[in-house]
Design a protein that fits this description.
By secondary structure, the chain is an alpha/beta fold. 42% of the residues lie in helices and 9% in strands. It has 6 helices and 4 strands.
Length: 151
Amino acid sequence: MVVFSGDLDKAIAAFIIANGAVSMGHKVTMFFTFWGLNMLRKQHPPKVKKNIVEKMFGFMMPRSAERLTLSKMGMGGLGTVMIKGIMKKKNMNSLPEMIQSALYNGVQIQTCQMTMDLMGIRKEKLLDEIETVGVATFIHSSDESNATIFI
């Protein structure tokens, strides 16, 4: 699965699919690139030295799964609060919990090294359990799969 989007609703869908597939015995690899990387950022990352462009990217992007917003009907943040409230009321896991569940259940989570370099995202700023790879590694995984999903 390629996770390109950093929108909360799309991230939730990606992890529902991943957790569902792995629970059915399928091998699941998720490759995060561009805005999708934001959900893998640590909420309280260590300080690292960055140039001005990297600092600007870091400032403009959400820092962690907790801070993603909806792609539609955001209503200035109200939509995000509402969907999180509905998820809690329906006893659904939060996005950070879905991510941890996926990792625990064996979903392989990979990040795109080239995108990280482009956007100034350092490995130290991302969750510890993920692997940073080149696109060739992802392509190899997708070549061996029955399906590739782009979110």
